[in-house]
């Protein structure tokens, strides 16, 4: 089983969602922190996409298969239903054409797992409202001038987006600093993990 | 680019090696070329490093570029020159000879010990010259298959190579997918582009424009030196990048002032002349013609590599270099796109380097990391990995 001390909460949640032996595409897989335990323990067939060549080297050290590419360019060539899961964890907010990427992910994956920082987290609201500063939180740790993020959204925003695009939310997980958040997630959750399906 | 490395490689070199040969396609078993022509009695040169295990599951076939040879690692007795990929093949190196059995095979059509246009045609007792059949990359690989059979190896753990070596890697997968467990095509392409064909055509024309070429029948008289050296100079320009040339030569002069003549004023001119003159001593002009033609014919795009609706279980590691404009990264990305469409397990990495196409021979460190771990996973899977575990 996955050891809890070194694995972030969002990774633990996604780890438990993904089924044994499934085919997984991780968009923006970093150093393979999520894919590696999935491959090792759950024998998934994993493919990563990553732009940073140092991170790719780390993935290869872990025995993972990775394509050096950016997320937006990497999707069109994959045939429909190539994967059981397409994971877009902490990378959706760095993508320009979010709509395209999610639609493409739904095409090539049976399910899409999206994880993102909640911009409406209570501490963000305080920072913006009382201090008049761009929020910096545990899930949004960047200063405004050097953030990789180009999209800022709340859990409510994302739910509305799915409704409008007729995307079905199969599961939703809301995460605080150390544990799952059960009440008023749009206020108290740092991160959210959604499992999506077409129609 | 292969100087100053002896002192570094002594401790983990494969040591003294020798080139060996197999002979096949004797009378009644002639080799059928893709062109339809046949070739009788073929010699193929190769070297091996490391030991083949009992199950014959640790064999890696390494394939060389256009003007390369079977001497990939170590030194020949009494000589100082290390093999062309010595920094990548040896104990503890990317292709670890403590674990794997490495075979480096030459190509037919060449002039480095294997049958080619400079070989004696048994039918006439004279060099083949232009009587030699036109060969393709598929023919080169078909000949190498005889070598792999010779060792009784059913499945190769890996086939690896850069540039034309990478084309052979792809051709191995196309021709014998079930015999290739993993493939490492480096700085290569699925098909030669018009620009690549154009360079090769200029290369060929410069050889054939030399009167000393004599329609290919120069063997009694000596090589068409002028044409062949110009051909090689063109090649060397394409192997470097604008930036690496700036770093290596800038506008430095060989002497302090302009000659106001057509001597080699600039260091870059001197370098190209030196390279050209050297090449004439080591490579046959007709082989250069034949092999450039073979790679111009190379095209595994579309259904060539893997037919539509089919897949292969071969794992891929594809490497390209940002400054390589002879085999630019977009060509490696084309391979990646094709593998995605065919559901093939693959890794692609575009390495940062300023060395241009030569990078695959020079950029040892990052290639070593990628290749060593890729081979480890291919050979051992996850089950027996005792190291590098996530904590």
For the structure shown, list the relevant keywords.
heterodimer; A: 199 residues; alpha/beta; Rossmann fold; seven-stranded mixed sheet; 32% helix; globular; B: 391 residues; Rna Polymerase Sigma Factor, Chain: A; eight-stranded mixed sheet; two-stranded parallel sheet; 16 strands; disordered N terminus; disordered C terminus
Q: What general outline of chain B do the C-alpha atoms trace?
A: globular
The largest contact between protein chains, plus residue counts on each side, is: A-B, 27 and 28 residues
User: What is the radius of gyration of chain B computed over CA atoms, rounded to a whole number of angstroms?
Assistant: 21 Å
Domain tally of chain A: 1
Poorly predicted tracts of residues of chain A: none
Strand order of the largest sheet of chain A: 3-2-1-4-5-7-6
Q: Determine the CATH topology of chain A.
A: Rossmann fold
A few lines on this structure:
The complex is a heterodimer of chains A (199) and B (391). Chain A is an alpha/beta fold and 199 residues long.
């Amino acid at each position: 089983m996955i050891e809890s001390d070194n694995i972030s909460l969002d990774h633990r949640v996604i780890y438990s969602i993904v089924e044994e032996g499934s085919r997984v595409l991780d968009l923006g897989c970093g150093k393979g922190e999520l894919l590696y335990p999935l491959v090792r323990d759950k024998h998934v067939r994993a493919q990563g996409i990553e732009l940073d060549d140092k991170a790719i080297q780390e993935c290869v050290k872990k025995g993972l298969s990775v394509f050096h590419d950016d997320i937006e360019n990497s999707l069109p060539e994959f045939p429909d239903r190539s994967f059981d899961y397409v994971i877009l964890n902490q990378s959706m907010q760095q993508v320009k054409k979010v709509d395209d990427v999610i639609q493409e992910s739904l095409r090539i994956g049976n399910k899409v797992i999206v994880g993102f920082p909640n911009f409406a987290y209570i501490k963000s609201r305080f920072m913006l409202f009382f201090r008049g500063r761009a929020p910096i939180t545990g899930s949004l740790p960047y200063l405004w001038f050097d953030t990789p993020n180009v999209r800022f959204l709340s859990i409510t925003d994302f739910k509305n987006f799915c409704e409008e695009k007729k995307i079905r939310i199969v599961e939703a997980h809301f995460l605080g600093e150390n544990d799952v958040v059960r009440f008023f997630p749009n206020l108290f959750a740092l991160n959210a993990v959604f499992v999506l399906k077409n129609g | 680019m292969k100087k100053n490395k002896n002192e570094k490689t002594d401790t983990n070199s494969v040591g003294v090696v020798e080139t060996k040969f197999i002979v096949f396609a004797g009378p009644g078993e002639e080799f059928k070329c893709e062109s339809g022509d046949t070739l009788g009695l073929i010699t193929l040169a190769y070297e091996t490093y490391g030991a083949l295990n009992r199950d014959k599951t640790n064999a890696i076939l390494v394939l060389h570029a256009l003007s390369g040879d079977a001497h990939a690692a170590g030194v020949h007795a009494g000589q100082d020159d290390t093999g062309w990929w010595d920094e990548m093949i040896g104990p503890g190196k990317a292709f670890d000879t403590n674990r794997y059995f490495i075979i480096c095979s030459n190509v037919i059509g060449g002039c480095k010990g294997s049958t080619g246009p400079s070989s004696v045609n048994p039918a006439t007792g004279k060099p083949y010259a232009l009587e030699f059949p036109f060969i393709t990359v598929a023919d080169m690989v078909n000949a190498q298959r005889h070598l792999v059979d010779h060792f009784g190896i059913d499945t190769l753990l890996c086939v690896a190579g850069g540039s034309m070596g990478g084309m052979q890697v792809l051709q191995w997968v196309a021709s014998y997918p079930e015999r290739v467990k993993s493939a490492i095509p480096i700085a290569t392409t699925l098909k030669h582009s018009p620009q690549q064909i154009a360079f090769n055509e200029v290369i060929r024309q410069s050889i054939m424009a030399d009167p000393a070429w004599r329609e290919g029948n120069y063997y009694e008289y000596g090589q068409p030196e002028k044409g062949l050296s110009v051909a090689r100079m063109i090649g060397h320009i394409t192997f470097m990048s604008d930036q690496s040339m700036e770093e290596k030569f800038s506008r430095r002069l060989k002497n302090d002032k302009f000659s106001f003549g057509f001597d080699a004023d600039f260091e870059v001119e001197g370098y190209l002349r030196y390279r050209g003159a050297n090449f004439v001593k080591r490579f046959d002009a007709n082989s250069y013609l034949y092999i450039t033609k073979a790679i111009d014919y190379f095209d595994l795009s579309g259904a060539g590599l893997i037919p539509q609706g089919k897949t292969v279980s071969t794992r891929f590691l594809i490497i390209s270099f940002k400054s390589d404009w002879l085999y630019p990264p977009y060509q490696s990305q084309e391979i990646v796109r094709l593998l995605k469409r065919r559901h093939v397990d693959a890794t692609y990495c575009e390495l940062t380097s300023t060395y241009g196409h030569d990078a695959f021979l020079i950029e040892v460190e990052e290639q070593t990391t990628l290749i060593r771990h890729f081979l480890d996973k291919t050979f051992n899977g996850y089950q027996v990995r005792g190291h590098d575990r996530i904590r």
